[in-house]
Amino acid sequence: MLRSRWIAGPAADQPGPLVAALTGYRTNRLLDLPGIAWHGLSLSRLWPALPGAVGMWLWADLTERRVGSLSVWRGEDDLHAFVRLRPHVRIMREYRHRGTLRSRTWQIDTLDQAALWGQAAPADAPGGRRSDG
Q1: Which residues contact 2 (CB under 8 A, 6 or more apart)?
Q2: Can you give the pLDDT of all 133 residues of the chain as single tens digits?
Q3: CATH number of the domain that 99 lies in?
Q4: Is residue 21 in a domain?
């Protein structure tokens, strides 16, 4: 599995509690993977200016045709604002029927990057959609 470096957001120094969000997308066809990965990278360029964004990683498991992110937000409202962003909506519409999305969110008391990555278990990210609150 490949993982990006931690990308800090404008709320990087925000104390807890915080909201963590794990998203995994498994493509139906290997041919779609490069486009999905490219769009994910392009969205990550917005990260340093997103209100309420604490930090994130992008991850990919190429052999399993999976890509995703593990992000941390100041709160649920900030996460939902990102989901509604025009570039994010456009990408989701384009790739909605080309694979399977699975996501979950949970609250964390403090940001411990190593512990968070261990809790996230991106290996369980493919498959159906799930949202744990």
Answers
A1: 59, 60, 61, 62
A2: 888 899 999 999 989 899 999 999 999 999 988 888 888 888 888 888 999 999 999 998 888 999 999 999 999 999 999 999 998 898 888 888 999 889 999 999 999 998 898 887 655 543 333 333 3
A3: 3.30.70.100
A4: yes
